[in-house]
Amino acid sequence: MYFFEVAYWVMGMTVTIEEIKEQPMALEAVLEELEDKANQIGSLLSGASSCLFTGCGSSYYLGLIGAHLTNRTKLPSYAVPAGEMIVSPDSLPAVSPDVVIPISRSGESTETLSAVRELKERNPGSQVLSVTCNEDCSLRELSDVLVVSREGVEESTVATKSFSSMLAAIEYLSRLRLDGEAARDNFRGLPEDSRKVLDRFEKLSKEIGRRTDLEKFVFLGTGEHYGLALEAMLCVKEMSLTWSEAYPLLEFRHGPKSIVGENTLVVVFYSRPGGEKFDDLVKEVNSIGGETFVMGREENMEGLESNYRAEIPVRPEYTDLSLYIAPIQQLGYYRAIGLGLDPDEPRNLEQVVKL
Amino acid sequence: MYFFEVAYWVMGMTVTIEEIKEQPMALEAVLEELEDKANQIGSLLSGASSCLFTGCGSSYYLGLIGAHLTNRTKLPSYAVPAGEMIVSPDSLPAVSPDVVIPISRSGESTETLSAVRELKERNPGSQVLSVTCNEDCSLRELSDVLVVSREGVEESTVATKSFSSMLAAIEYLSRLRLDGEAARDNFRGLPEDSRKVLDRFEKLSKEIGRRTDLEKFVFLGTGEHYGLALEAMLCVKEMSLTWSEAYPLLEFRHGPKSIVGENTLVVVFYSRPGGEKFDDLVKEVNSIGGETFVMGREENMEGLESNYRAEIPVRPEYTDLSLYIAPIQQLGYYRAIGLGLDPDEPRNLEQVVKL
Prior knowledge:
Two copies of one chain form a homodimer.
Chain A lengths: L2 H9 L3 H7 L1 H24 L4 E5 L2 H15 L4 E5 H6 L11 E6 L5 H13 L4 E6 L12 E4 L12 H19 L3 H4 L3 H20 L6 E6 L2 H17 L2 E6 L15 E6 L6 H12 L3 E6 L11 E4 L10 H17 L17
Parallel strand pairs in A: 1-2, 1-3, 3-4, 4-5, 6-7, 6-8, 8-9, 9-10
Helix pairs in contact in A: 3-7, 3-9, 4-7, 4-10, 7-12, 9-12, 10-12
């Protein structure tokens, strides 16, 4: 069963796990970039009255998280998959966003580039603030400001450090709106916390990842944590070709709950709002035969009984989301190995989707 | 293998399949209701400048479809799960909708009722146009206009005729904005078309439903067809406890595609926009070993090669969506029977979710 694992270590074919472990460096680098460009970003966002995030796949999920966070700063924001913007533009709200925020690891995704061109044409006054890992990309020439996560560049197809470092950038935008120049103080210590999380939960992630008796994974979150749930779903699916689903917290009861059985793990991203709604859900999943894995701040999960539990370091609001995804990336990796799959080369996929 | 099927017929325990077959009657009844209330609805919508749909599960998916259609009539619209509105309200766009459109089969879902109360409090000027199957429900007293699909009432937990009849009501709202009183002419013949679809595709749905070698179902659509894809995903999941997923058309390539193998059926809801993007996707799924099932108008699918195909009767725009879901409901039903499950009693679920 662990043949692949041994083989990977011996042969050094561990691109994905190496990249997962490089998250602290990627975070450090992107925070430097954000400090450098804080003034540009701040002035671009300060005059905005509406904001549109777009991207594909993991980058769209980052956009969803961004829209939820930005709404909390009282700037009305939306996220739309870039593909929908080019195939069915008339079915989307006819908003004229002041700021368009495309997200693309490669900066080369055809749909995202087309969506930005289309949006610029429709709203000539709008400004473009892009987030990418690729300094010299086609997205650059469409952007007023380009935020680059230089150490987020990956060989792996599945997004790991690219996701968490671009996520920190997305969080930074909201903190800039709330704190101005003081934003950077709130991110102090994030790379160290990332290292702590990677070390602290590797054993747990490996334990769950190796449980090949588990057949179904469900990820639940509310608000910005729903975007995290989607990324967790996709990460586990791509790496280990596993049945995985994601829903907004309470939507789970309206049908999807039917799949819960003894081979099901329901992962709940705990967040402050929601209170007993989280606890009730966890109890219910256990009562119908599923297992539960909760992630959140210790203070929010007091007295809660679950099968697995990961306590995320306490940090200022909107600066800790990137810490939630690393244990799931590790879990997906070890599950792939346990199932005899190569996490470096997920089936059917390419790194960049060009049409 | 067909023991359950025989048993159900002999014992008359066929609530779900009976209700699937009652769709033409449910459509006829809801169209009468809509004609009766057309003036009220029309005047409520005519002055609106923004519109918010909400609901849970299948009703939220109806809201998503409604938002896409209403956007096409140039009225900016959004859909939000009712649960998110009560757990994470601050992470949602701070819009002040003139019209709130809650959808609830029972008119009693706790989250939907709470969301409507909350929205009315925040926007005292807004009006509430509700869609339900239950005449005497708690939603009534919160509504300015209540559209009731009287024949949509179901014994079954899985939504079938309730979904398609409330969907026709949602489509009617958009046609009213486009055509005024002439809207009803565009819906002429819909019950007959529904009967045709049920008869024409029962054999095909049974054939696919009985293919228990298929392990994964993926449903894809763009714009308003994405909401249909979500409902198809949920319907098959609830009835047959099957691995089923749904994505906006082009999002599928950005990761989820990895699950496609020889036991995978990808169902594509074809719609006019998109053109060759649909064809390319269908070809790609077949080339990586999956099977394909396309549904749409004959004229849109000319020359396309797929494993299965259902040609939906040609009708005026925004009056044919309810025809797409019936073959999937039949498929889910026959798959449940084939797997030895009772489609009338999906695991873990209740008809109405009250918190």
